[in-house]
């Protein structure tokens, strides 16, 4: 499995080998040994897995979880094509405010690891794109937050009329969330991840 660090501290992209023959293919989108080699600890305790299906033009995010409790994610596109974006929302992080973008699709099956406190957004570039998520915490409407995906000048490949949820369309700008004290703090995020290192 190939791996590379992203421009957001602690975030990585992983590309598994895909074994193809006349029957189809098989791959392992998560592999512990290369993950530990990059991140420094085994994958967080997986509390929840989920899928999303999105038509072309759907924009989801920028989503993050109040910290504490915080949430880390490991995501990949099982079908279709996604432009995935990670944004460092952790106040005090060495890469605070930085972002990076990765194309996730059904050909490379590239995956992205998002540490605690890092924001996540994506645009579906094809109909019926399916994203798979492994999460370190269960989803809760009480702790799930968002900032506007249209605020940060992210390199999102957005159609003329992006499809956003009501929550994402009404999400505050990055600066407004910062002023309101809604963003996670880097040191708190690091403390949560330290527990996974044992």
Automatic annotation (TrEMBL):
CDD domains assigned: cupin_RmlC
GO cellular component: cytosol
Entry-linked Pfam families: dTDP_sugar_isom (PF00908)
Residues under site feature: Participates in a stacking interaction with the thymidine ring of dTDP-4-oxo-6-deoxyglucose: 139
GO molecular function, one term: dTDP-4-dehydrorhamnose 3,5-epimerase activity
A Gene Ontology biological process term: dTDP-rhamnose biosynthetic process
Active site, renumbered: 63, 133
SUPFAM superfamilies in the cross-refs: RmlC-like cupins
InterPro entries per the UniProt record, alphabetical: RmlC-like (IPR000888), RmlC-like_jellyroll (IPR014710), RmlC_Cupin_sf (IPR011051)
Family: Belongs to the dTDP-4-dehydrorhamnose 3,5-epimerase family.
Name of the protein this chain belongs to: dTDP-4-dehydrorhamnose 3,5-epimerase
Organism: Kibdelosporangium phytohabitans
């Amino acid at each position: 499995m190939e791996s590379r660090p992203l421009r957001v501290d602690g975030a990585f992209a992983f590309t598994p080998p895909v074994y193809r023959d006349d029957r189809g293919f098989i791959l392992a989108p998560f592999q512990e040994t290369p993950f530990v080699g990059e991140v420094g600890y085994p994958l967080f305790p997986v509390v929840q897995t989920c899928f999303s299906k999105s038509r072309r033009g759907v924009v989801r995010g920028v989503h993050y979880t109040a910290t504490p409790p915080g949430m880390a994610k490991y995501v990949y596109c099982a079908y279709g094509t996604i432009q995935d974006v990670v944004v460092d929302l952790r106040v005090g992080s060495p890469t605070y405010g930085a972002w990076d973008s990765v194309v996730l699709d059904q050909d490379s099956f590239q995956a992205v690891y998002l540490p605690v406190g890092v924001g996540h957004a994506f645009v579906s570039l094809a109909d019926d794109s399916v994203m798979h998520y492994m999460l370190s915490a269960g989803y809760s409407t009480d702790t799930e937050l968002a900032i506007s995906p249209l605020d940060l000048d992210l390199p999102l490949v957005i159609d003329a009329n992006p499809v956003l949820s009501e929550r994402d369309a009404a999400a505050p700008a990055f600066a407004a969330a910062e002023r309101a004290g809604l963003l996670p703090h880097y040191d708190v995020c690091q403390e949560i991840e330290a527990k996974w290192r044992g």
